[in-house]
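Hey, quick one: can you model this chain's 3D structure?
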Amino acid sequence: MIKARNLTKKFGSFVAVDNIDLTVEKGKIFGFLGPNGAGKTTTIRMLTGSLRPTSGEIEILGLNMKTHELEVKRRIGVVPDEPRVYDHLKGYEYLEFVMDIYRVNEKEVKERIQELSAAFGVNYLFKQVSDMSHGMKQKLMLISVLMRKPEVIFLDEPTVGLDAKSAKILKELLKKYASQGTTIFLTTHILEIAEKMCDEIAIIDKGKIIAQGTMETLRNGENKSLEDLFLELTAQEEDIKNIVEML
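Sure thing. Here's the predicted structure for all 247 residues.
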């Protein structure tokens, strides 16, 4: 459902993503992890068509991103790290705007909006977006994506700004959707989420993928948490020890 080959993105002389390969199968939850500035968001932006790669090939749903960009975008959903919602609209106006763009079955989607609003405690659709908190906008953005039931969903730090109940509901919903055949690609700094949810994990650092596989593969026979593995692989464990000793 998601394929990237030799994917590279340069900003001038800086290489943000360096010749990476990715494959995600149908119905899998794929965790894409890395330190700040490692290349996670840049990769998602390339995979979803909002940023052109410097080189490399991308296929989503078996379609080449270069030649079928609109078709790909019609069939996927994207929840960015910062909810980008038009401030001058009210919540329900934004959702209607999204429905118009994607030409969805209005009756069916409106029922989904009611269900999702109840699930996430969204009772502010008549409020102006500019008056909403970050968490309120994040829920609105989630509803605007989940209401369409896209075949592939990309989420960049989706639980940031969500209360504990909403974060738990989102995690359970993503598991449910994956079991029904939806493919999930997510980034998160909460390693416990990735460890419990993801079928496969890739770790990127300085633009390169340094490890990829299931939790069992990454552990390689050792009884380590994902947090321990992540800090070892990204060479941060020793830094943490030194910092703590200094304080």
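One thing worth noting: The chain has one domain: 2-246.
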